Amino acid sequence: MKYYSTKDKGLRVGLKEAVLSGMPSDGGLYMPEYIPLLSGEELRRIEKGTLPEIAVTVLQDYVSEDLSVNELEEIVLSAFNFPIPLKEIDENKAVLELFHGPTLAFKDVGARFMSRLMSKLITNDKSGLNIIVATSGDTGSAVANGFYDIEGIRVFILFPSGKVSTLQKKQMTTLGKNIIPLEISGTFDDCQKIVKNALNDKILNSQHRLTTANSINIARLLPQSVYYFKGYYDALKLNDYDEQIIFCVPSGNFGNLCAGLLAKKMGLNIRHFIAATNVNDVVPEYLRSGTFKARKSVQTLSNAMDVGNPSNFERIVDLYDGLYEKTTAEITGFAFSDTETKTQISTTLRQSEYLLDPHGAVGLLALEKYMKDRKGTLYGVSLETAHPSKFIETVEGVIGNAVSIPQRLSDCLNKEEHQILMENDYEKIREFLYEKMI
Ligand SMILES: *Cc1c(COP(=O)(O)O)cnc(C)c1O
């Protein structure tokens, strides 16, 4: 499998270059040159498989030129080492819980797979690898955790000052060792811009290897297709809804949704996708009007989705050859306010005894809105992307009760933070990076 740039389909690179460079020098994003179509037999194997077994079948063709099946198996056994259960909310809806990994958010899937893949890909290389990442909260903790203490790799994590939760900050800043957190006085979009600048910076890249671990890295995206297969067949086991299963994806940079679209193109019979956002709704707006217009992001309660210029939109355009009708035939978008998000958290707790986090609440809102007019015909799976305790201030405020924090999260609360404060000034940050890179 080769990977092309969304800006130049003639440019083809192998997996190692696509993953280690993060993004092509023309500023596009890497995409697989074709999307493997799974056979009936492979789909039956997936239906009966464990999560790591599903992962091997789904990911094999994407990596087979660079890794043996045994190496892939080793990676996915270690990356998918937590369950992804489907929980029914009512007779025609369920949530797929993606938050059972070490940092309690779905980004653990991509981060764990990518770190292990990168470490395999550089096994025989002499020089080290630097990773730079912008985060609005969850990416940072997942990446920090995924790469922690991996030899030969140093990680720089940029997060917007004052815009991530206390717990998210603790998770990113208390590890130490090869993880260097930078607190930037700016927005998430500013952090993302710095990352793009650094990756395209000739001076920084001339002496050292620098790459990213944002959802723009294809190594983060591909493993996320795996849980769509798992969720689909689990939904099928609960109900007789073949041909009728839809997925709703709470979205920010749209990597998660993109992975679902790939799963469908691989042969998974998902009937429709719903893109759910908070008021940062440039994609729902595009799906409604046909016009894509990036804007400055606005802060909301579902802050991991506060993105004004979603990077993976380019991949969605690529998947549908830029054809608006083709895109809207498969994806419907909805956006919701913080007030609606809070109401949904309390309604779902009352009616279904299920506690959502703010991102999952946006997802369920969208799923219910879509299904309201289509009663009795569909089965909806909404992705629950984070554990409610990751957003404890918001959730406790809404339900008026204490939310218990899983041990793996509370463990880091008493540790010391190591972040370095920096202005939103690329020249200064570049100087710092230049000094610290390995
Ligand atoms: C990152 C994140 C999202 C958004 O995912 P994208 O792939 O960027 O669309 C949603 N919910 C949570 C909890 C997240 O951390």
What does the model show?
It is a single chain. With 438 residues, the chain is an alpha/beta fold. It has a domain at 83-104 and 221-404: Rossmann fold (3-Layer(aba) Sandwich), CATH 3.40.50. Helix content is 45%, strand content 17%. It is built from 19 helices and 14 strands. It has helices at residues 15-21, 40-48, 51-63, 69-79, 107-121, 138-147, 166-173, 188-199, 202-207, 218-238, 255-265, 282-289, 313-319, 324-330, 338-352, 358-372, 392-399, 407-410, 426-436, and strands at 3-5, 8-13, 30-32, 86-90, 93-97, 129-134, 153-160, 179-185, 210-212, 245-250, 272-277, 331-335, 379-384, 420-423. The strands form three sheets. Strands 4-5-13-10-11-12 form a six-stranded mixed sheet, with helices on both faces. The two termini are 30 Å apart. Pyridoxal-5'-phosphate binds next to α11. Pyridoxal-5'-phosphate is lined by residues 105, 107, 138, 215, 250-256, 304-305, 359, 385-386.
